[in-house]
Every structure is written in C-alpha cells, then in structure tokens.
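Troubleshooting: if your tokenizer reports a length mismatch, compare your output against this known-good record of 299 residues.
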Amino acid sequence: MNLQRLSPRPPTPRLPASSARAEAGKQEAVSPRDTLINVAMGSGLALGTANLAAQVVSAGSLPAAAATGALALGCGVAGWVAADLASGFFHHWVDNYPRPEDRVLGDLAYSFQVHHHKVTDLSEPPLGTNLAQTGQLTALPMVLGALVNPPAAMLAGLIGFTGAAYLLQGSHRWSHENNPPPLVRKLEALGVIQSREDHMAHHRPPYKGNYCIVNGMWNPILEKTHFWRGWEKLIYRCTGAEPKCWRDPAVKDFSLGSIDEATMNRRVRENSKDFLKLDKRDFEQMQQVFLARHPEQAK
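Known-good structure output:
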C-alpha cells in the first residue's frame, strides 16, 4: 500500500536551511544527565567493539577468524534489523495508546507526539539531547554486555540492536531537517538510517503507518500486509482499547473488516481535515496536562 496516495501531500515539515542555522545558534548545551548517558553509551559501544574485534583476532586460524567475523557481522546486521522492527512497535504504541493522565507514559507520549504539531521540535535541542532520549534505555545493557563480554555472536547482536536504538532519535531528527550533514544524506541513501521520503509518509493524517524509524526497512512489508490494522484489531479484541488513528472512522472500519482498502483510502482523504481538528484538540489537552505536571517546561 502506498501511503503517499492516501491523502493530499501536506507541506513538507522541514526547517529551511536559514532557519535551521538560526535555531542551531540558539541551542542550549546538553544537560549533564544527557551527557552522562551519551558518554556511557559511547563507552559501552567502544568497549564492546574492541572486545568483539579481540574475539575475532584470537579465534585461532585464519579460517576460524573469518568464520567468527562473518557470524558476528551477520548477528550485528540482524540486531540492526530487529531494532527497526522494535522501533515500529514502540512508535505505534506511543502514538496511539498512552493517556495524558498517565504520569510517566503520558509524558512520554507528549514528548514523542509534540513534533506532529511543532515540526521544529526535534531540531531545537542539541543532537546529544535527542540521542539521550533512547540512550537512557540502551546505555545500561550495552555497558553490561561489554563488561560481561559474551560470545562474539551475542555481543555483535547486542551492539547492532542497542546501537541502532540509540541512533533512533537521531535518524528521526535528520529525517525532518532540511540540510542534514553530508554523511547523514549518504547513510539515508544507503538505507542505513531512515530517508526523508519514508518518514514523511507517517506524517500524513491520521498518522497510521510507516512507524519504523531506525531505517524504515520494515515499513513497506508492514504497510503492504496491513500489519498495523491487524495488530490494532487484536489489541481491541483483547483489551477494548482503540488506537488514536481510529479517530478516523475509516481506519477503524477497515481494521474491523467492514470496508475494503479502496474505500478506506477515499474516506481517509475526505476525513483528513476533521481528523486534524480532533488531533489538535487532543494534543492541546495532553499539553495542558503535561505543563501542569512540569511548569518549568512552559515557554
């Protein structure tokens, strides 16, 4: 399914180059907490990579070293691939299910959804602040894994998975930037991190697809098979919880099997303005709750 055809293409949510440079000049420093997280994650990755290289070199014969290295490379790639899929489950959940009144989960949902309404949000803080958002989850397992130094295959898988998850918000940020660094553009072209085009499909109301945001490699197959609609139906049948994207009744009707894909696509286009009004109202309520809990965040 081509999400680009589901609704008229909105203005591309990217910063103009001049605006991006101006914002960069106003950025605050990375907080001490986030700096500690990034240093810990970087140290864990460095130590883990050094341990992995030592295991390959000490494997014995050249054929054994080559086999160990090939296995490690495969497991590292598998970890990266798994992280992209995991990012999709996380992104789908945080966009659709947390409630504002849930103190921790509501705050997480707000911080993740705010850029749907303020497109410069990801580019305003320093990159280190973006990276620390997921680094706070990946630093400890990466450091522990590097210290334990498990067999090469396990260590490589850990490096691939946590490294990709750590870069998740960096990839997300760069997909919104008008002038990402040349290296980032190259990595996007190679499919190592998510491309602008792939992520922009997610930003079309009702934000119902392209949830994987490490490199987005899972998005085509998940969209083609309507995986998220089936996942939402399963959650609804088991818990009664409805995702936010079902605020567009066409998505709900398709998920529950009462209309076909062509009808859903047509109705999504027709419902776009109404959905955006509902989504804006919901976000304003979420923002009020968040700022009441964190008045220091008010600007």
